């Protein structure tokens, strides 16, 4: 493809790369717009996006208390009701 108004020739390696790159960016923004529209439609139906909470409110309170007191279970990687330490850090 050869454009009469732009200086881009798809018969060269650089031109093909640029053409593919622009197509990829256009596809990305199309998917992004569809995702945003889908989230808006779901919100209008009363649904909220995102992951479900891993801890219920009771476990979250135990995790907050355990993290504040530097509680550990025999030096292993688990604390408060078997929840991984990485999960508990989200609440500190």
Description:
The protein has about 90 residues and is mostly helical. It has 2 domains: about 1-50; about 55-90, no CATH class. The chain is about 55% helix and about 5% strand. The chain has 3 helices and 2 strands. It has a two-stranded antiparallel ribbon with strand order 1-2. A hairpin with a 3-residue loop joins strand 1 (about 80) and strand 2. The longest helix is centred in the first third of the chain and has 32 residues, at about 15-45.
Quick description:
The protein is mainly α and 92 residues long. The protein contains 3 helices and 2 strands.
Number of domains: 2
- Low-pLDDT regions: 74-80
Give the distance, in angstroms, between the N- and C-terminal Cα atoms. 57 Å
Query: Which percent bin holds the helix content?
Result: 40-55%
Number of E-state strands: 2
Mean pLDDT: 76
Main sheet strand line-up: 1-2
Continuous helix count: 3
Rg measurement, Å: 25 Å
Which structural class do you get from the secondary structure elements? mainly alpha
Shape assignment: elongated
Order of helices and strands: HHEEH
Instruction: Please outline the major beta sheet.
Output: 2 strands, antiparallel
The percentage of residues in β strands lies in under 5%
Secondary structure blueprint with pairings:
Layout: H1 13-44, H2 57-68, E1 78-79, E2 83-84, H3 85-89
Antiparallel strand pairs: 1-2
Observed structural traits:
92 residues; mainly alpha; 2 domains; 2 strands; elongated
